[in-house]
Amino acid sequence: MPEALPEDLSDLTFDTVVAGGGTAGCVLANRLSATGERVALVEAGPDFGHSRGGAWPPVLNDARYVPTPYDWGYHVAPYGYDIPFIRGRVLGGSSVINAAGINWGLREDYARWVELGAEGWGFEDLRPFLLKVERLRGDDAPGRGRDGALFVSRDRATSPLLDDLRRAYAAAGLPGPIDASGPDAAEGWGDGTRNADGDERYHAARAYLDDVRDRPNLTVIGDTLIDRVLWDGDTVTGVAVVRDGRPSQLRARRVVLAAGAIGTPTVLQRSGIGDAAALAPILGDGVPLHHLPGVGRNLHDHYGSRLFMRTAPGFAERLAARGHVPGTRQSLFARVKSDPALPAYDLSIGVNHGDTAPPDGLLPITVFLVHLAAEGSVTIADADPHSHPVIDLDIGRDEDLDAIARGLRWLRRRLADPAVRDWFAPEAAPEASESAVGDADLREYVRRNIFLFHHATGTGRLGPARDPLAVAGLDGRVHGFTNLYIGDASLMPSIPRGMMILTVYAMAEKIAAGLVATAPVPR
């Protein structure tokens, strides 16, 4: 085990500092320390040690919950009402506090990256790394990973309600069952997959750090906030951090930013790396600037809205009478096109229910837009690393709202199918009947009832140096620097469909493989 940390971190020097201990950071720390180089993994949130060492709060290993006490506390308010914007602040990052859903993006998603200039990042380029991550057990879906680092399981619940909903989907011509988390299904219904075994969560700290914590050349530093990158000309020399309220520094021969699509661009901006005209008045005179206008741009996140169905009397009794297995996870996913002319699905419809009727009698069914026009930004408000940034998700474009509204309308028709309708009383929201809400009203309902997926991506995107908005080259190296890299979701040129965390793991694996090939010689 590494020795206890000194009070003054400036006494420490590393070959590589991985700045951010979330999903990508855990991957990078594992793979880079395997070479023998001295690696520091720095995380703003707590490090509870080995995930089975007894110190982790049980809620963090329970896939049924989203434990927001380990969240950064960000919010957005696009239409005057507050929406939490959840990002994990704990070793393992958002993989520790998310809903544990996991899927591959479509082949078309990664082809789009190549179209945007990310040569070498198409589906076949990423596929070996997706396989290196995924360990899907007890499943015969072709082409999925079987031997990777991260345990993945299929939802196999048999619910009478969902069986009836499958019949309604089939009657509407929606194919199924499909691999609703695979890379090839354009439309259809099927069971999803989760990085969990029953209710037990498998997160990045468990999958990538538990087995390597004893490496003497790996130092995990929790409760330490990354302030900025230290740089001179085209070379970084380390990072400035805040630990126990005291500023300090970590010296390094290389820095890899893995603080996520919000943390990574704001660290860069506090470092003077970004849009020089915007940063100059924030950082003040005398702060050197490196002009990279794409830093913080291209922010994407999936979002949608929910239909609230009031369960009919006797809901739980009907479940039991038809052979429902108590205690199982009941979920069904549908991939749907909001417009038949689209080349691939753009809506993900998720239905989940428990063993009994919901306490308030309302069952929410979510329609998420997973291929969208919105393109936002994140910008520091000031130079204080403790301050929340300004997050603009650009959500609410009419074309996006219309697509979600069409999804709600499609779902309503399926729920009115004779196979399903007796499960529910009149709809609670948006209205009691479809005829009561026209297109404009339904769009306005969506605008007032936005629900986020919390899938922030794209704010330090890959691309060639000739692209004025590209932040990092195809190897993850930040343009204009010799030894500063990005290895997280910031790199995505566009957002994949569905739950994008598997893609984050795979991108970190690919960046790590490139860094290992050019690793500093340990000294």
TrEMBL record:
Which cofactors go with this protein?
A: FAD
Q: Which Pfam families match?
A: GMC_oxred_C, GMC_oxred_N
What InterPro entries does the record tag this protein with? Answer: FAD/NAD-bd_sf (IPR036188), GMC_OxRdtase (IPR012132), GMC_OxRdtase_N (IPR000172), GMC_OxRtase_C (IPR007867)
Tell me if Cell wall biogenesis/degradation is a UniProt keyword of this record: no
Tagged with keyword Flavoprotein? yes
The highest taxon in the source lineage is: Bacteria
Q: Name the residues that span the membrane.
A: none
Q: Which stretches make up the Glucose-methanol-choline oxidoreductase N-terminal domain?
A: 260-274
Query: What PROSITE patterns does this protein's entry cite?
Result: GMC_OXRED_2
- Alphabetically list the UniProt keywords: FAD, Flavoprotein
Matches recorded under PANTHER family: CHOLINE DEHYDROGENASE, MITOCHONDRIAL, GLUCOSE-METHANOL-CHOLINE GMC OXIDOREDUCTASE
UniProt similarity note? Belongs to the GMC oxidoreductase family.
Name used for this protein in its record: GMC family oxidoreductase N-terminal domain-containing protein
Q: What is the species listed in this Swiss-Prot or TrEMBL entry?
A: Dactylosporangium maewongense
